[in-house]
Amino acid sequence: MNAKPACIIIHGSTFFAPILVPLLFYFLSDQAYIKEKAMEALLFHILMGVAIAISSFLMIVLIGFVLVPIFSIIAIYYPIKGIIRALQEKPFQYPIVHSWVR
Protein backbone atom coordinates (compact mmCIF):
# COMPACT_ATOMS: atom_id res chain seq x y z
CA MET A 1 0.00 0.00 0.00
CA ASN A 2 1.29 3.40 -0.94
CA ALA A 3 1.73 5.73 2.05
CA LYS A 4 0.62 8.93 0.28
CA PRO A 5 -3.05 8.04 -0.36
CA ALA A 6 -3.26 6.24 2.97
CA CYS A 7 -2.08 9.33 4.85
CA ILE A 8 -4.47 11.56 2.90
CA ILE A 9 -7.38 9.30 3.87
CA ILE A 10 -6.23 9.06 7.49
CA HIS A 11 -5.90 12.83 7.87
CA GLY A 12 -9.12 13.48 5.95
CA SER A 13 -11.06 11.06 8.12
CA THR A 14 -11.54 13.84 10.66
CA PHE A 15 -14.45 15.04 8.51
CA PHE A 16 -16.33 11.72 8.14
CA ALA A 17 -15.10 8.97 10.51
CA PRO A 18 -12.42 10.24 12.88
CA ILE A 19 -12.19 7.07 14.98
CA LEU A 20 -13.10 4.27 12.59
CA VAL A 21 -10.78 5.07 9.66
CA PRO A 22 -7.55 5.41 11.68
CA LEU A 23 -8.40 2.18 13.52
CA LEU A 24 -8.96 0.35 10.23
CA PHE A 25 -5.66 1.57 8.80
CA TYR A 26 -3.85 0.72 12.03
CA PHE A 27 -5.09 -2.88 12.10
CA LEU A 28 -5.10 -3.59 8.37
CA SER A 29 -1.82 -2.00 7.29
CA ASP A 30 1.47 -3.81 7.50
CA GLN A 31 3.65 -0.69 7.10
CA ALA A 32 5.03 0.89 10.27
CA TYR A 33 4.76 4.45 8.89
CA ILE A 34 1.05 4.10 8.09
CA LYS A 35 0.41 2.53 11.49
CA GLU A 36 2.21 5.42 13.19
CA LYS A 37 0.21 8.06 11.31
CA ALA A 38 -3.06 6.21 11.98
CA MET A 39 -2.33 6.05 15.71
CA GLU A 40 -1.33 9.74 15.77
CA ALA A 41 -4.56 10.73 14.01
CA LEU A 42 -6.64 8.52 16.30
CA LEU A 43 -5.08 9.97 19.46
CA PHE A 44 -5.40 13.52 18.13
CA HIS A 45 -9.09 13.02 17.31
CA ILE A 46 -9.77 11.54 20.74
CA LEU A 47 -7.83 14.33 22.47
CA MET A 48 -9.71 17.04 20.57
CA GLY A 49 -13.03 15.34 21.30
CA VAL A 50 -12.26 15.27 25.01
CA ALA A 51 -11.03 18.88 24.97
CA ILE A 52 -14.18 20.08 23.19
CA ALA A 53 -16.41 18.07 25.55
CA ILE A 54 -14.71 19.52 28.64
CA SER A 55 -14.87 23.01 27.14
CA SER A 56 -18.56 22.53 26.42
CA PHE A 57 -19.11 21.63 30.06
CA LEU A 58 -17.11 24.72 31.08
CA MET A 59 -19.62 26.93 29.29
CA ILE A 60 -21.37 26.92 32.65
CA VAL A 61 -18.63 29.20 33.97
CA LEU A 62 -18.33 31.08 30.66
CA ILE A 63 -14.72 30.14 29.82
CA GLY A 64 -16.04 27.40 27.56
CA PHE A 65 -17.36 30.00 25.14
CA VAL A 66 -13.74 30.92 24.44
CA LEU A 67 -12.27 27.42 24.53
CA VAL A 68 -14.74 25.59 22.27
CA PRO A 69 -14.01 27.75 19.18
CA ILE A 70 -10.25 27.52 19.82
CA PHE A 71 -10.27 23.72 20.08
CA SER A 72 -12.63 23.45 17.10
CA ILE A 73 -10.26 25.47 14.93
CA ILE A 74 -7.32 23.33 16.09
CA ALA A 75 -9.30 20.14 15.36
CA ILE A 76 -9.90 21.31 11.79
CA TYR A 77 -6.58 23.05 11.07
CA TYR A 78 -4.14 20.22 11.80
CA PRO A 79 -5.87 17.53 9.72
CA ILE A 80 -6.01 19.95 6.78
CA LYS A 81 -2.32 20.69 7.30
CA GLY A 82 -1.69 16.93 7.38
CA ILE A 83 -3.54 16.45 4.10
CA ILE A 84 -1.49 19.21 2.45
CA ARG A 85 1.76 17.74 3.77
CA ALA A 86 0.75 14.27 2.57
CA LEU A 87 0.00 15.64 -0.91
CA GLN A 88 3.46 17.23 -0.94
CA GLU A 89 4.96 13.99 0.43
CA LYS A 90 6.48 15.86 3.36
CA PRO A 91 6.51 14.51 6.91
CA PHE A 92 3.81 15.70 9.28
CA GLN A 93 3.37 15.20 13.00
CA TYR A 94 0.34 16.08 15.06
CA PRO A 95 1.22 18.34 17.99
CA ILE A 96 1.37 16.79 21.46
CA VAL A 97 0.32 13.25 20.46
CA HIS A 98 3.32 12.55 18.23
CA SER A 99 5.51 12.04 21.28
CA TRP A 100 2.98 9.52 22.64
CA VAL A 101 3.37 7.25 19.60
CA ARG A 102 6.67 5.41 19.52
Strand composition percent: under 5%
Distance between the termini: 21 Å
Helix content: 55-70%
How many separate helices?
Answer: 4
For the residues shown, what is the average pLDDT? Answer: 89
The total domain count is 1
Low-pLDDT regions: none
Q: How many extended strands?
A: 0
Q: Which descriptor suits the 3D outline?
A: elongated
- SSE string: HHHH
By oligomeric state, this entry counts as single chain
**Biggest sheet descriptor:** none
Cα-based radius of gyration, to the nearest Å: 14 Å
Structural class: mainly alpha
Which key phrases capture this entry?
0% strand, membrane, mainly alpha, 102 residues, single chain, MamF_MmsF, transmembrane helix, transmembrane, DUF4870 domain-containing protein
Polypeptide structure, described:
The protein has about 100 residues and is mainly α. Helix content is about 70%, strand content about 0%. Helix 1 (about 5-10) runs parallel beside helix 3, helix 2 (about 20-30) runs antiparallel to helix 3 and helix 3 runs antiparallel to helix 4 (about 65-85). The protein starts with a helix and ends in a 15-residue tail after the last helix.
SSE diagram, text form:
Blueprint: H1 3-12, H2 20-28, H3 32-57, H4 64-87
